Amino acid sequence: MAKMKQLLRGQPLDLIHAQFGGNGVRILPLAKQMNIPLIVSFHGFDASKKLASRSYRDGLKEVFDYASAIIVCNPGMCDALPLSEKHKSKVHWVPYGIDLEQFSNDTSPAPLNSFSILHVGRLVEKKGVPDLIHALARAAKEVDQVTLHIVGAGREENECRALVKEYGLQSKVIFHGWKSPREVKELMQQCDLFVLNSRIDSKGDAEGLPVGLLEAMAMGCAVVSTQHAGIPLAIENEVSGILVNERDTDSLSQQLLRLYRNKELRQALGKAARAKVENQFTMKRMHENLRDIYREVSNK
Questions:
Q1: Cα 46-90-2 angle, rounded to 5 deg
Q2: Is the pTM of this model over 0.85?
Q3: Exposure pattern of 120-135 as b/e (b: 16+ CB <10 Å)?
Q4: Cα gap 34→50, rounded to integer Å
Q5: Euclidean distance between CA atoms 222 and 117, whole angstroms
Q6: What is the mean pLDDT of the chain?
């Protein structure tokens, strides 16, 4: 904290914006000491799993008392955070934004050899990748030319690999590990379907609003995800994507088969997904929202 104070001393600061609740708790004493307005943003685990800590919750209440603005990436966080009615008046919903120039669906590389499903994200419990493999195994009993591309790594990787071996899916599941943003975009361009099987994990950890999902939508991918956290804010079911309930592996498998068999539906969903991002989840709009909040706090 001393180093932070030294860094900030003499700087013409109008405000401090803390990303994640934990950073807000840590920097609160300095903001008070220097009499600088504080804004705090929440992104996922800091508004779910981390709330199990009583000291963290108590620290947040002090942050909320002092903060000039509280930013959430999905409004549902307000139900989990320890917000009083007074605190709620400070809350702003600022959706994440995608740089549309970086995620364009204008180019179309040659498709992969089979119907390709893409997952991008850490291999951790809240991403639901083992259940995605279960769903693929059920779907693969009815169709042959299907491949699941898994991008990412994490503590569930060994479990996922064991499931692939158990189901005899070695020729249908490709583990890519971590890929560069350019490589991920190439896979998004080539995939027929993007799936994010998110859920609340056993420790209460939840998504905020997954950026990877928004990126896939910006690429014009047909997407399947879950009724979880901020995801329904981005995906209107049966319009800009398909939503299934958390942990409903049967429904997930049925939707994989449905979209495998219906290219027209995939194309319609992908087109609507791109439009949804263009209308609501652009980088430009996010920056404008933040600028307006900064201006409001600075003027006060």
A1: 55
A2: yes
A3: bbbbbbbbbbbbbbbb
A4: 27
A5: 10
A6: 94
Q: Give the closest residue to 219 by CA, choosing from 184, 253, 250.
A: 184
pLDDT of 108 above 60: no
Q: Are 171 and 7 in contact (CB under 8 A)?
A: no
Q: Per-residue pLDDT averaged across 89-118, rounded?
A: 82
State the DSSP string of 13-65.
-S-EEEESHHHHHHHHHHHHHHT--EEEEE-SGGGTGGGG-HHHHHHHHHHHH
Residues 6+ apart with CB under 8 A from 89: none
What are the chain's domains? 8-96+282-299 (3.40.50.2000), 115-279 (3.40.50.2000)
List Cα–Cα distances, 113 to 64, 110, 116, 181, in angstroms.
53, 9, 8, 22
When pLDDT is cut at 50, 70 and 90, the band that residue 12 belongs to is confident
| Angstrom distance (rounded) from CA 94 to CA 294 | 12
Mean pLDDT, residues 262-289: 97
Categorize the per-residue pLDDT at 106 as very low, low, confident or very high, splitting at 50, 70 and 90: low
Q: Are the C-beta atoms of 186 and 196 separated by less than 8 Å?
A: no
Check whether 67 has a pLDDT greater than 80: yes
- Minimal CA–CA distance to 240: which of 269, 260, 280, 282? 269
Residue in 116, 107, 105, 111 with CA at minimum distance from that of residue 259 = 116
Tens of pLDDT, residues 208-219: 999 999 999 999
Alpha helices in the chain (DSSP H): 2-8, 21-34, 54-66, 77-80, 85-88, 129-140, 157-167, 181-190, 211-218, 231-234, 249-261, 263-280, 283-299
